[in-house]
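Researcher: We plan to redesign the surface later, but first we want a full-length starting point. Tokens attached.
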């Protein structure tokens, strides 16, 4: 019984410390953005690369990391202002609706 709890706590601590960095500085279109999100956040193959499905995936299918850092954010905002705004809105909404699975996201 003790090993079970020890293993559980180790696994829990690992997931708590999970951090992912995504370089979005070279992304030029929505398709490229969704492909990078799919790869880096381990979205399922069925991900349809739209914002409604992004919401479904981050709320039902994958656990977001504790820390999510976007490098080159100002470039993404310049090139894809609508997509960058939608993504941030969904991440904020995720954090409000699921405080136990809060994701600290940083846009550099």
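Model: Full-length starting sequence:
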């Amino acid at each position: 019984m003790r090993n079970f709890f020890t293993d559980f706590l180790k696994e829990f601590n690992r997931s708590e410390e999970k951090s992912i960095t995504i370089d979005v500085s070279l992304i030029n279109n929505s398709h490229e953005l969704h492909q990078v999100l799919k790869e880096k956040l381990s979205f399922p193959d069925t991900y349809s690369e739209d914002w409604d499905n992004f919401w479904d995936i981050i709320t039902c299918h994958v656990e977001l990391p504790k820390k999510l850092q976007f490098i080159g954010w100002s470039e993404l905002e310049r090139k894809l202002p609508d997509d960058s705004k939608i993504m941030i809105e969904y991440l904020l909404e995720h954090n409000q609706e699921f405080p136990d699975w809060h994701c600290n996201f940083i846009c550099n």
